[in-house]
Amino acid sequence: MLRFLQEHNDKSIEVLTAGAALARGGFVYKDPADDELKVLATGLGDDIVDICKNYDGANAVKDPTEADFEAIAENAQALRVPTLVGERYATSEVTRNYADIGDPMTVTNGKLVKATGAAAYQWIYGGTYSDPTGITIHAVEKVVPATAPATRTITYNKNNGLGTLVDVRSPYFVAKEATVLENTFTPPAYYTFKDFDTAANGSGTNYNPGDKVTIGASNITLYAQWQATYSGIVYDANGGSGEMSDDNLYEVDDVAVVLDNAFTPPSGYVFSKFNTAANGSGTDYAAEDEITIIAGNLGSAITLYAIWADDESTFRLEYNANTGTSTMVDPDSPYETGDTAVVLDNAFTAPTDKVFIGFNSAANGSGTTYLPDAEIAIAADMTLYAQWADAITVSYDKNGGTGTLVDENSPYATGSDVTVLMNGFTSPTGKAFAGWNTLANGSGTNRYPNDVIEDAAADIVLYAKWIDIFTLTYNANNGLGTQVDPNSPYLSSATATAMNNGFVAQEGKQFASWNTASDGTGTSYAPGASISMSANVTLYAIWEDAI
Fold this sequence. Notes:
There is one protein chain. The chain is mainly β. The chain has 6 domains: 2-147, Virus Head Decoration Protein, Chain: A (Beta Barrel), CATH 2.40.300; 151-228, Sandwich (Immunoglobulin-like); 232-312, Sandwich (Immunoglobulin-like), CATH 2.60.40; 316-391, Immunoglobulin-like; 393-469, Sandwich (Immunoglobulin-like), CATH 2.60.40.4270; 471-545. 0% of the residues lie in helices and 42% in strands. It contains no helices and 51 strands. It is elongated. The N and C termini lie far apart (120 Å).
């Protein structure tokens, strides 16, 4: 494909026979041996080949289209177009090879390619060209023959990382600018990428991806720089067998939790602990211990070595469900003589209608009782048996209210003391909580919040008791202002005290008393009088002429 962008008109164009298959827009030469056009293998490139679109003969094309003129068959007639300095062409016969505008180009196998360092050239790259039909090809310009600048390479070194990173635009011409690539190396374990540097140890010039580098007299090597960012925990069997791994990456102030031992001990040994030294001279760690990562840990892993103890000098602490189900394992067992064990919280599932009451050194409970968190001085193998007692439940019934209330300690062991809960139900409209009762109709035993039911021997249901409440309202009755009884509403049969008047009298009036009727025909109350609350009451201010 060929487009003439800027061309001199005063030059001769020859029609010659193609001595081989040619591509329109390619670079050719006239072979003096047979006067045929041949592909120019290498050189500066003086002649471009075009096609004869209108000619008579065996190879004539009827009603031609653009596509009919891109390939020139051997023995077909073609045009040898000489080129002059200053002319510009757009041709498909360019292999750019990341050439920038203005970069030198030379001919290889009929195509213009980016020149190598110190090569002679007479073409420069001119960018891309799009014609009105939408075809995009490369533009080139002929210049006075010259020698291309020397080239230098940019090489990326992983510098203890992994992988490869290649700048496909390298080599660059001296004095050109190159853009530093994004890092694609894989960092060493526990490190992250920081930047690139011209020295492996980071003492040279550093560059971030996207920075510009001016190509100088020497080749450039950019070394990936890594910064210690993470730490890890590595487990070593230390003579045992099996695998353990913690795949987490930890930063400063992160907390790593030591895993339960999963290694198989050497014959005749049992697991004792982990230690930061293989010979046990470092820091000891047990399962569930926490390790806080500090800055000095970054860039490497903390290795925890399994420490094995002679089986005959250690003692096991085991837990038995004793008719319960599931399992419990003490992660610190076995213990050495003189060690102190802390009794674990129960994790067994209780038998039906039973509740956990502790552990005992005998299955029937005749031995020593141990509660969770108790300490045991280890001097021999020991088994702790879960102890179960008959269970009783304590439940609360809203009895017309709404909501839920659950005793988190229920079920209780038979004979336990039960503390009655505070009410958590919402009362029915017009009612107030008045305690608990063992019967829904309130005819049973009354219980109140924080009461203690001693030696509970059977299931207990406590029903909420609700009593009526009544409001005491004050009406200004043509006076001004508002007045509210802060103690209203009142429980049924409670006694309220009539308040002092807080309303403002109209001009010429003064407060006389309170009355249950606005016209004063009801029951009259003076401030401080007692009122039995057996229904809602409204007290109207009664006004008299001021003296």
